[in-house]
Structures are given as C-alpha cells and as structure tokens.
Amino acid sequence: MALLEVDDVVVQFGGVTAVDHASFAVEPGRITGLIGPNGAGKTTCFNVITGLQKPTRGHVRFADKDITSLSVHRRSRRGMARTFQRLEAFGSLTVRENVKVALDIHRGLKGLVQRSATDIDALLERVGVAAYADERADAIPTGAARLLELARCLAGDPQLLLLDEPSSGLDESETDAFGELLQELTREGRAILMVEHDMDLVMGVCDEIHVLDFGKVIASGRPAEIRTNPAVQKAYLGYSDDDAGAEAPAEQTRTDLAPVGAGGYADPYDEGATTVIPAVGGPGDQETR
Ligand SMILES: Nc1ncnc2c1ncn2[C@@H]1O[C@H](COP(=O)(O)OP(=O)(O)OP(=O)(O)O)[C@@H](O)[C@H]1O
Ligand SMILES: [Mg+2]
Does the residue 10 lie in any domain? Predict the structure, then answer.
C-alpha cells in the first residue's frame, strides 16, 4: 500500500499552472524518483506534499490520512522530512551543532528529553560527514553540506524522506556512496521521494520514477521503461526515438534544454555538463541517438 498519495493536485500561480492535475504514489521501502525538465513543477509538488504550498485543488494522503490541510510541523510529526534545493543548515553553527539542534527539535516534538553525543556522532558517521563535525556549516564543501541536510532530516527518524536535488555538489564517488546510503535507508522500511537531475543516480537507484513536464505527470514506471518512453525523451530532448529521422531539432523550443548533439540537458548545478538519460545496464551501455 502507498505511504504517500498525491491525488489530482493543481497549483496555480496567477496565470502559471505549476502543477497540473498531478497524481502519483510513493511506496514504503522504495526509492521513487520525481524528474522532469527545469520548471516542470517538481519543487512545487514537494511544497504541496510538505505543506508549504496550499494546492489550488487536489489532495495529499499520508499513511492513509488526508493531510491536505495539515500544517508543515504536523506533517513533520507524522514522519515526513525534507531537504531543500537551497541549503538550509545554520551556517554559523558547526556540523555537529546543526545535527544536535535537529535532534533536540524532533525529540522536543515527540516529548523526549534525552539525547546522547553518541546519537549525534552516529548520524554524522552514517551520512559521511564525521570528518567535518567541528567545522562551521558555512565553511564545508557543498557536497558535505548536502549530506549534513540529510543527517538533519534523519534526526527525526522519518518514514518518508523528500530529497530535492540531493546530489548536486557531490563528486562521483560521493554520489555512489550516497546512492548506497539511500538504498540502505529504504531497506529499513523508509520511503524516499527524490527530485534529482543526475540521471545516472536516478536510473541506478530508483525503484520507480514519475516524470513531470509542464506540471503534468507524463510517465510513471521503472527506470528501464522511463528511459525508453517517447514522451519522456521528447520532454527532455525535444524529440524521441520514434520520430522519423530522430535528429535534434536545429533550435530547441525550451531554454532549459541544452542543444547538444548527443542529446542531453544542462545541469544547472554543473556548468558545462550535460546529462543523457543513461542505460540502466550501466556504463558503456549508453544509447546513441
Ligand atoms: N512562488 C511562485 N510564484 C510564481 N511562480 C512560481 C512560484 N514557484 C514556482 N513558480 C513557477 O512554477 C513552475 C514550476 O516551478 P518549480 O520550481 O516547481 O519547478 P522545478 O521542476 O522544481 O524546476 P527546477 O528543476 O528548475 O528546480 C515554474 O514555471 C516556476 O517559474
Ligand atoms: Mg526545483
């Protein structure tokens, strides 16, 4: 049974429809990807799920309860935690102090008073930032700061983790370790919903993927299905394998699509880089278009 259900959600900002009758579900014990080109409505969906944004219409259900009108903190108490696309840690506190504050907040919410140094160190160790424990959060590399965000989320022992672009700033080996950590967290029964532009990570770790384009869910399925889905290829590349002659159009119609010969889109966090939706089979199995 689904832990989270987004049901026919619409979000309008004046004349802009950021989310357009989107419905999708997130299962416990699984990593679910929410992907789509820039401006597709991914972060707005996260805001609706976590209570920061009231939907124009539609419902959100969590653990079988309609939570559409619950406040952010009540949702958090029910077991939801979220990282932000922009880093949110307290810059003037150390990494350890940041995790301590998060633990105190969650324990306070749950009426618990005890916190031990071991809990903090175990969390820092688990996400891989123990080496930065005594450094100020605003002085550590971006990759470590992303991992600190995850540690702060885990302080609340959430059932559902919502991660908005968690791998930006991580190098390749950090991203691999991060993917393994996510899988370990789902083996504990947690559900993860992840917005992510790194397609290698998405295709490598997600059990299921939902694709948004202009606010609509245009595809849902396993990574192998999503990769070869013509509507998804069109959304990212402007054309699909099904198109006759399958060549990149001379001019891209969307500013966020990088006009690269091999087909790909610009990663806004990695200047100059492009990402091709990769083969699920792993490196060396990349599709050529
Ligand atoms: N507060 C707001 N007011 C007006 N328009 C907004 C607001 N927030 C988002 N939008 C618009 O809604 C659409 C969806 O934005 P959103 O940030 O959800 O996309 P996204 O998929 O997260 O994009 P990205 O990959 O760039 O992070 C965009 O057209 C955006 O400009
Ligand atoms: Mg976003």
Answer: no
* Residue-by-residue pLDDT tens, the chain, 289 positions: 899 999 999 999 999 999 999 999 999 999 999 999 999 999 999 999 999 999 999 999 999 999 999 999 899 989 999 987 677 788 889 999 999 888 887 766 555 545 555 688 889 999 999 999 999 999 999 888 889 999 999 988 899 999 999 998 889 988 998 999 999 999 999 999 999 999 999 999 999 999 999 999 999 999 999 999 999 998 887 777 777 554 444 443 333 333 222 333 333 333 333 344 544 433 333 333 3
Q: Quote the pTM value.
A: 0.82
Residues 6+ apart with CB under 8 A from 1: 27, 64
Substitution candidate for ligand 1 out of 19, 44, 217, 257 with most atoms within 8 A of CB: 44
Binding site membership of 38 for ligand 1 (Cβ less than 6 Å): yes
Q: How many CB atoms lie within 10 A of CB 278?
A: 20
Ligand 1 in reach of 47 Cβ (< 6 A)? no
Indicate the SS3 state at residue 150.
helix
State whether the beta carbon of 43 lies less than 6 angstroms from ligand 1. Answer: yes
Q: With respect to residue 26, please indicate whether it lies within any of the assigned structural domains.
A: no
Does the residue 216 lie in any domain?
no
Determine the structural domain holding residue 103 and report its residue range.
Answer: 81-157
- Judge whether 111 lies within some domain: yes
The answer to whether the beta carbons of residues 56 and 273 sit under 8 Å apart is no
Considering only the C-alpha atoms of the chain, give the largest distance between any 2 of them, rounded to a whole number of Å.
65
DSSP 245: T
Per the structure, the count of domains in the chain is 1
